[in-house]
Amino acid sequence: MRSSFFLPLATLLLAWISPTSAIRNASSSGLMVGTARIDITPYPNPHWLPLNEFPHEKLHVRAIVYESNGVRGAFVNCELAFIQDGIYKTANKLVAEALNTSLANVLVSITHAHSAGPAGVTNANQYGNAAVRNYTSLGLAAVEAATLAVNNMQPAKVGYNTGEAYFNVNRDALDPLTRRWTQAANLSGPIDREVQVLTFLGLDNIPIAVYTSYGMHPVNSYLSGFTTGDWPAAMMRWIETSMSVNDTFVAIYSQQASGDVNPLLRRPGTNNLASISSVPITGFELVQECIEEPVRDGYTPFVRPDDHYIRQLFQELEAQGIMMGEIVMQIMSQTTDYDLNPTIWAAQETVSCPGRKRLDNAREGVAGVYTSGPNFNVTTGAVGIGDIVLVTVGGEIFTRIGWRIKNETTMAKTMIVTMTNGQPSGYIPDALSFSQETFQVLGTSLMPGACAELNITSSLVSMVASYKATLG
Ligand SMILES: *[C@@H]1O[C@H](CO)[C@@H](O)[C@H](O)[C@H]1NC(C)=O
Ligand SMILES: *[C@@H]1O[C@H](CO)[C@@H](O)[C@H](O)[C@H]1NC(C)=O
Ligand SMILES: *[C@@H]1O[C@H](CO)[C@@H](O)[C@H](O)[C@H]1NC(C)=O
Ligand SMILES: *[C@@H]1O[C@H](CO)[C@@H](O)[C@H](O)[C@H]1NC(C)=O
Ligand SMILES: *[C@@H]1O[C@H](CO)[C@@H](O)[C@H](O)[C@H]1NC(C)=O
Ligand SMILES: *[C@@H]1O[C@H](CO)[C@@H](O)[C@H](O)[C@H]1NC(C)=O
Ligand SMILES: *[C@@H]1O[C@H](CO)[C@@H](O)[C@H](O)[C@H]1NC(C)=O
Ligand SMILES: *[C@@H]1O[C@H](CO)[C@@H](O)[C@H](O)[C@H]1NC(C)=O
Known about the structure:
Domain Neutral/alkaline non-lysosomal ceramidase N-terminal: 56-267
Shape: globular
Number of domains: 2
Protein name: Neutral/alkaline non-lysosomal ceramidase N-terminal domain-containing protein
Pfam family, one: Ceramidase_alk
Signal peptide: 1-22
Keywords: Signal
Bound molecules: 2-acetamido-2-deoxy-beta-D-glucopyranose
Structural class: alpha+beta
Order of helices and strands: HEEEHEHEEEEEHEEHHHEEEEHEHH
Helix content: 25-40%
Strand content: 25-35%
């Protein structure tokens, strides 16, 4: 289903003559951009108090609201590990209603930081599916951020540029001892190092906001027991506090293709888990999976890790975030081509592929047992902003799908944003990766094959082509 957004002249006139108090008039031309950041950090667990030493210990919902040529839209980003499909859809709808725009113009995404939830629990990844801090739902927090952002819109210009960061690694590997598939760094597996950066400046050239994407799971804090937004939180706060002394700048990170991508460096996170389960820590890099498994599966009591190791982990997350932030700011600095009056266009679709139901529950390394299941539905979208287009996937695609989208898009400035506006049950491997018995492949309810890879790519590529056609 496609719902392209065309703005009739009447809308423009109506918006001009009937403003509401919460929302500014749509400007007849010229880009306007506003930003906001609200705190959604869970209230502290008195039995498992935070260190309160690192910026990444706070979680936020951020919004960048844009408007040009009478069309308004928003990039909303939530520092959460995982939210259900319906939560994305509700937040998307509420923000679109608040901004009086189409669903397709609103991108609701998450950073996927694996400990972005309450402290002292192994299921922190449920945070966001119910109340967040003092908001009764994520949708209401998203509306609050979008409304605050609308109310500080200012004339702006937008530019796009890319660079590279070498912090990520393919995470699907054959265990050298068992010769079975496991989660570990695979230095020869597919990996995409591209960092994509959309920069918004005021007309005075003072930076207002940046929207970035890069493929890398924020998993080093997984099961750490502490609340943290992991390296993306450190990155966003570093950029924000670097770009404006009064902290009005907003930086957003969203996932690119990351279903098969981890950080290359995981040693401090592994040590932190080892300190929970009393595995001897040597100082050398330990094998994560065999240390994570007993904690993940509850074979070992979940206790507060040694402060020494959580502090080292948090220092590493801060360091990763700072270095990623520096790369983003270098890419921003080298962005030269800015547009003051971009066309805005958006569309959203759902692609569908055969699904399956799992009948067993092995983690990895063996074949799974399945029966057929309901179709696997993936939300796709595109937002055109002048000669830039953001293509979105509601799910966790593998690297080769990202490459395929980049290969086949007909617009040079195509930014990929995933984990946006929807989440099917499971990962979205490319056709080749289905032969690997990894936890992502075994766990997905997508039937093996090329359907998702082909359908997602062709949906995005055809939306990009439709947008390009409107540019003439
Ligand atoms: C919202 O947009 C619709 C058209 O899309 C327009 O008819 C209506 O007047 C707008 N409402 C406000 C409050 O701007
Ligand atoms: C919206 O436009 C009307 C009519 O031009 C004007 O009176 C009003 O001040 C504007 N409101 C805002 C918030 O800019
Ligand atoms: C909700 O939490 C935010 C962030 O902590 C705070 O600024 C705001 O005042 C709170 N609102 C209410 C109604 O408590
Ligand atoms: C890395 O992955 C590739 C497939 O992408 C596989 O052929 C290779 O054996 C893997 N290497 C290791 C060390 O796991
Ligand atoms: C914050 O600083 C920016 C310049 O960095 C300035 O444009 C803006 O007006 C300041 N905002 C506030 C609320 O002081
Ligand atoms: C996706 O793929 C399936 C099977 O290959 C096909 O039947 C379906 O129409 C495709 N298109 C969409 C938009 O889902
Ligand atoms: C996918 O969408 C189809 C058609 O709307 C529906 O029948 C099916 O149940 C959906 N699949 C899931 C897993 O919700
Ligand atoms: C992308 O294009 C390159 C060069 O044209 C090709 O080598 C590669 O196989 C393509 N990758 C995908 C995933 O389509």
